[in-house]
Specification:
Elements lengths: L9 H12 L1 E2 L1 H12 L5 H15 L4 E2 L8
Parallel strand pairs: 1-2
Helix pairs in contact: 1-2, 1-3
């Protein structure tokens, strides 16, 4: 399997967008999946992803069926 290469700042942008909109789109979910599978993420980034998942489980974030928030 080929390694996953994230764009610089992608995790931070994902966290900021979801925090602002309280919605997790399909694109956001694929971004999270890529970030979780990426072995080069820092401990701080992993902690941010963990907090995002915890917020999702507690119902603070809604899962949107749309591809992106941008229209």
């Amino acid at each position: 399997m080929s390694p996953v290469n994230l764009l610089p700042g992608a995790i931070e942008e994902l966290i900021a967008t979801v925090t602002d909109t309280h919605r997790l789109t399909k694109a956001d979910r694929y971004g999270m999946m890529a970030a979780i599978l990426d072995e080069s993420t820092t401990d701080e980034q992993r902690g941010c992803l963990d907090r995002l998942i915890r917020s999702l489980v507690k119902g603070r974030i809604q899962v949107a069926d749309e591809l992106s928030i941008v229209m």
